[in-house]
TrEMBL record:
It is a multi-pass membrane protein. The chain crosses the membrane at residues 20-41, 53-70, 146-171, 215-238, 258-277, 345-370, 376-399. It comes from Achromobacter veterisilvae. CDD domains: ClC_sycA_like. It holds the Pfam family Voltage_CLC. Gene3D superfamilies: Clc chloride channel. Coiled coil: none annotated. Signal peptide: none annotated. Keywords: Membrane, Transmembrane, Transmembrane helix. This is Voltage-gated chloride channel family protein.
Amino acid sequence: MPRNTRLEQLDLLPYIGKWLVLSFIVACLAGAASALFLHALDWATSTREANPALIWLLPIAGFIVGWCYLRMGRPVEAGNNLIIDEIHDPKKVIPLRMVPMVLGGTVISHLFGASVGREGTAVQMGGALADQLTHILRMRPEDRRIVLMAGIAAGFSSVFGTPLAGALFGLEVLAIGRMRYDALFPCVVAAIAADRIGVLLGIHHTHYAVLEVAPLGLVSVLSVVAAGILFGLIGMVFANSAHAVGAFMKRRVPYAPLRPFIGGAVIATAVWALDGYRYIGLGIPSIVQAFQQPVAPWDFAGKLLFTVASLGTGFKGGEVTPLFYIGATFGNALAPLLHLPFSMLAGLGFVAVLAGAANTPIATIVMAIELFGPEIAPFAAIACIAAYLFSGHSGIYHAQRVGHSKHRVVPEGMRISELGAYRKQLRQESMAANPGKQA
């Protein structure tokens, strides 16, 4: 048999050079887009806070955004799910219009008071901009998948200032229980470079300080396991509720622009009636407060309801920052019950609710270390893994596949959105095989 005597390491040099260049281009595109977006978001937030009456224009703003997507944005309406689908089953290049559509839609949502996040916008912009290289460089499907994953990593990294977590998020979010290591180097390079580019362009990320970490012992570990289970259940409730409200609105309100109009009217009225201004927008001050002192024990539920109403009725943005809010305030509420420090439980909730809702435990463990320091690492690992397991096969991204089931056997490669129909079919087959049980 012929043998290849050439050193494998020599063959890797062109590979490294190729992906250094491509990843840096992706990072420049995603980092610059995220910087523009975050500056616009700061303006929208400060303007809304200075003019609280803008909340009453939320229905009109929602209608306008919904109408624009109906007329011009149908090919990109699926957002993050479109990018995940294109990585799994490449069909056509993501239209560039996704960038201005999601950028404008998210800024308008924040300006008038919807409770949405920002990661969805950054990820969509990063993915869409990266995918334009497919046209220019005539990429093979295998390379296109990696470029899209690098775009996701760069977008996530640049918007949160967590480059290692961003790289892992781009690898981990595609499938439950499975990561693609062929994209590891490009995702790491793109995430680190995008974060640095954002900083060069004037982006400043909020600092969250965990002031005290409990000693590592049996009682503290068991307490964190209990907290992690609850964080996972909250992540599951959030994901399932957002999908349920979205599906309900699509069934009941066929005309798409009316959905955010109705949602905006409900949200504006609720904000006025409940004095719920702390539950709209990103809610960064409330997150910071949860690390410093006790907050109202119902704050997590308020943010969850306002965010589900906003996303479920069609407002544009992301889920991750609201999940940070929900997790931090819920952890704050649990702290006295579990006899753990407020800031520690707030930090664990911050990452663990996301771990459960997005099925990304490794990325969120690393995020905890990047944001809060290495001392919290053992507890973050326990909380994030417990949350991931107990959130079940649900998630905020419908296009996410099952790479490896968590506990109960689920067919590999199935989309999260298909699991409901699969379970229903199993129940019907079980009842047909055992008619006596049905009675």
